[in-house]
């Protein structure tokens, strides 16, 4: 079977360009006819978006109904976004291109998923900031320990928690770490317990030593009566009995470290005055018979006298140390940066 090709093609320019040109001009005419409808759609979208921006711009109202400024800003942003999407849907509905909206949202979802994996640390830190601003686990100028970081809280920002260490240094901890960390707050409960160990001779009466130490603790003004001081036998050593004493202080009136230091000194003095021996480590020296040694008794060195300042002895002041707290307040007063903490309330 034989097929004979007799098809011929017209390659003239006018014949081939006429259909393309006619289609082009027809598309332009369709666009021109649709311009009024597109204008109406854009106007509707802009009006809806404008309403959203006006509602979101009521900052005083959103701050009044929200716990903090961070959440108020988040609510305002969400309102703007919702009204923008609603305006876009209305505009596409007017011009009859709702199918395009599904394609755009589908593509945006895929892009958003990819970006989410790329910036998951940043997103996690942002969410942690939101949760911390809602929970308020600490207040400004509170003494906290976050994992191994200790200091007083300066502020909580949308990215990090800023502490001032007890050495006066600034410490920034990402909020994603703070949210997952173990937080120890020393300031939430004004009462705080201290303890210390003192050893007495194994031949002494340990119970009497406990009673003597507790009497000394009770005589200190800064040691509170409720809860009462306490003492226990912690362990029996090689040549002594270790007694652990407990006492409580009110941190609003007493510095914890100062109070503990003065309590140790008071109990030690009371035990020595009552005749209890505070044994020192015993070392046994062994010499070979062929070794000749000469032991010379050294004169007893004079005990150092208490350091004086201005003709007075060392101060027994146990009041709170205001230095770091004052620096934190000065830092907060001098800075106008964002702060998500509330000084009025905090919830667990």
Overview of the structural elements:
The protein is of the alpha+beta class and 348 residues long. 47% of the residues lie in helices and 16% in strands. It is built from nine helices and eight strands. It has a five-stranded antiparallel sheet with strand order 4-3-2-1-5, sandwiched between helices. The protein has a three-stranded antiparallel sheet with strand order 6-8-7, with helices on one face. β2 and β3 form a beta hairpin. α1 packs antiparallel against α3 (69-94). The longest helix has 44 residues, at 13-56. The radius of gyration is 39 Å and the shape is elongated. The model is unreliable at 293-301 and 306-314 (pLDDT under 50).
Cα-atom Rg, whole angstroms? Answer: 39 Å
Please trace the helix and strand order, writing H or E for each element: HHHHHEEEEHEEHEEHH
Count of DSSP strands: 8
Helix segment count?
Answer: 9
Mean pLDDT: 78
- Counting helices, strands and paired strands, the structural category is alpha+beta
Distance between the termini: 92 Å
Instruction: Give the % helix.
Output: 40-55%
What are the segments in which pLDDT stays under 50 over at least 5 consecutive residues? Answer: 293-301, 306-314
Tell me the strand percentage band: 15-25%
What characteristic shape results from the CA principal axes? Answer: elongated
- Main sheet record: 5 strands, antiparallel
Give the spatial strand order of the biggest sheet: 4-3-2-1-5
């Amino acid at each position: 079977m034989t097929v004979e090709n007799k098809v011929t093609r017209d390659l003239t320019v006018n014949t081939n360009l006429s259909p393309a040109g006619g289609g082009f001009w027809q598309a332009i005419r369709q666009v021109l006819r649709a311009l009024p409808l597109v204008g109406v759609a854009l106007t509707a979208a802009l009006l809806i978006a404008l309403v959203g921006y006006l509602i979101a711009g009521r900052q005083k109202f959103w701050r009044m109904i929200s716990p903090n400024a961070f959440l108020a800003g988040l609510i305002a942003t969400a309102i703007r976004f919702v009204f923008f999407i609603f305006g876009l849907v209305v505009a596409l509905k007017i011009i009859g291109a709702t199918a395009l909206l599904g394609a755009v949202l589908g593509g945006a979802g895929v892009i958003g998923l990819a970006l989410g994996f790329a910036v998951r640390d940043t997103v996690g830190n942002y969410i942690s900031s939101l949760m911390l601003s809602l929970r308020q686990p600490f207040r400004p100028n509170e003494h906290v320990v976050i994992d191994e970081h200790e200091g007083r809280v300066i502020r909580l920002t949308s990215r990090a928690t800023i502490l001032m260490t007890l050495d006066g240094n600034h410490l920034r901890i990402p909020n994603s770490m703070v949210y997952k960390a173990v937080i120890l707050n020393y300031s939430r409960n004004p009462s705080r317990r201290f303890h210390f160990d003192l050893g007495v001779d194994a031949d002494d009466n340990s119970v009497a030593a406990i009673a003597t130490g507790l009497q000394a603790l009770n005589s200190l003004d800064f040691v509170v009566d409720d809860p009462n001081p306490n003492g226990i036998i912690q362990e029996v050593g090689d040549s002594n009995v270790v007694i652990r004493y407990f006492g409580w202080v009110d941190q609003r009136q007493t510095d914890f470290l100062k109070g503990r230091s003065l309590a140790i000194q008071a109990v030690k003095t009371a035990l020595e005055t009552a005749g209890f021996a505070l044994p020192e480590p015993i070392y046994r020296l062994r010499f070979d018979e062929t070794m000749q040694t000469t032991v010379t008794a050294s004169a007893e060195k004079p005990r150092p006298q208490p350091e004086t300042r201005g003709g007075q002895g060392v101060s027994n002041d146990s009041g709170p140390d205001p230095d770091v707290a004052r620096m934190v307040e000065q830092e907060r007063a001098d800075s106008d940066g964002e702060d998500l903490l509330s000084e009025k309330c905090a919830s667990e």
